[in-house]
Each structure stands twice: as C-alpha cells, then as structure tokens.
Amino acid sequence: DAKTTQPNSMESNEEEPVHLPCNHSTISGTDYIHWYRQLPSQGPEYVIHGLTSNVNNRMASLAIAEDRKSSTLILHRATLRDAAVYYCILRDVDNYGQNFVFGPGTRLSVLP
Amino acid sequence: NAGVTQTPKFRVLKTGQSMTLLCAQDMNHEYMYWYRQDPGMGLRLIHYSVGEGTTAKGEVPDGYNVSRLKKQNFLLGLESAAPSQTSVYFCASSIQTGNYEQYFGPGTRLTVT
After folding, report:
1. Touching check for A44 and chain B: CB below 8 Å?
2. Is B104 close to A49, i.e. CB distance below 8 A?
3. What is the pLDDT of residues B53-92, one digit of tens each?
4. Taking CB atoms and an 8 Å cutoff, what residues of chain A touch B55?
5. Up-side HSE of residue A22: CA atoms within 13 Å toward CB?
6. Per-residue CA distances from B81 to A37, B13, B14, B42, B74 (Å)
7. Residue of A nearest to B60 (CA)
8. Pair A36, A46: CB distance under 8 Å
9. How close does chain A come to B10, measured CA to CA in Å?
C-alpha cells in the first residue's frame, strides 16, 4: 500500500487559514486521496477526497500537486472546533479488498 | 437516522473474560468494519464485512471474532480478553468499498485488567 507522511502536530490561530500538508510520493494512478479528522473522544469523520483536481466542499478545500506526490488540506478559517487529529489516507479504488489505513495523523491545535 | 451506533460505550473486563461489542447502522450499508485505536496511534483494522453473512480479516485480527448475521449489525467478540486488548474500538460502515466515505460510530472504551 502506498504510504503517507504528515507532520505530527501543527498550530493555528483562530479565524486564520490552515494548510495541512501530506506527502505521498509512491501514490499510484488509481489512488484517491482522502482526509478524515477525529475530534477529541469521537470517531473519525470524513472531510474531503479527490483524485487529481482540487476539490472544495463546505468543510474544506483539497489542493493536489500536479504530480500527485503531495496534497494540502486547507481550512479557510480555523475555529476552535477544528482542533482535531487530521488523517491523510490513500485509497485504491480498484482494490476491493483494501481498506483505510490510518497513520498517526497531524494533531491540529487552534489558539483563541 | 441514528447513523452508526455502538453498544456499550464503556466496559471493564478481567483477563480471561469474554464479551461482545455490538455495532448497528441504519443506512443500509453493505460494508462494515471494526477498528481499534491505542493511545496516540491511528486506527487499525481488525475485521471487516462486505455483506451479510461474510467477514474477512484485517490488519490485527488475532484474539477477535466477528459475525454479520444481519445486514445492519456487525458483532465483535473477545473470547478470552487480555490486557493487550485494552483500547478504544470503533465501528464504521460504508455503501461500498473503493471511493466511498466511511461513517464511524462513537467508540467503545474497553479496559482489561
């Protein structure tokens, strides 16, 4: 399985944008890039996913490098509620036996 | 629409005792999963199911058994609990595998003494 590398932790000020990086240099052509986050004492929740083009939804934006070897999750205005662990996961859509592999993720702290 | 629910929320077991964790989903999802999460770690897949009556092993299946007798329920069993199984257990479901998002339950915190 292709692996991802994320910083262990990041800090942001409230109401400022946050850019969470993820490196995936061994990504294959059929790997989708998924982001989940886990708020304290809760199960993970879906944030966004994409393949090649940048993606936007109500929660965040996903910027994917042209060579797809890295991506960035963008929270446009961080709130205290965005403090969580963020996981970047690759998912091979053609591999029906594969499941999500969660690494340690990036712990985001939001300062008031 | 409750989504994914897990029972119980907390449990303390003595070494050697057995128990069953129940996961239920009301979204008519085909796929269901059991993960464990140890302190400071990401989630690791224990077992999963691709439909009623089918199960498969994940990354860390030893010491656990599962059953999917009904589409909406996925049970995780510990036959003889060990302290190494102290963890938070999460259940998840998805429409299919591939590119579909997984919906997670709130978790069960299990302590084995």
Report:
1. yes
2. no
3. 999 998 899 999 999 999 999 999 999 999 999 999 999 9
4. none
5. 30
6. 30, 7, 7, 22, 19
7. A101
8. yes
9. 12
CB B98 to CB A34 under 8 A? no
Among the partner-chain residues B41, B42, B107, the one whose CB lies closest to the CB of A43 is B107
- What digits encode the pLDDT tens for the residues B15-43? 999 999 999 999 999 999 999 999 878 88
Question: Chain A to chain B, count of Cβ pairs less than 8 Å apart?
Answer: 56
Choice between A25 and A97, residue whose per-residue pLDDT is larger: A25
CA dihedral of B71, B76, B79, B83, whole degrees rounded to 10: 180
Contact across the interface for B106 and A43, Cβ inside 8 Å: yes
pLDDT beyond 60 at A96: no
3-state secondary structure of B69: coil
What's the confidence (pLDDT) of residue A93?
A: 66
**A1: pLDDT confidence band, cut at 50, 70 and 90?**
low
Contacts of B29 (CB under 8 A, 6+ apart): B93, B94, B95, B103
Tokens of A95: 């591999």
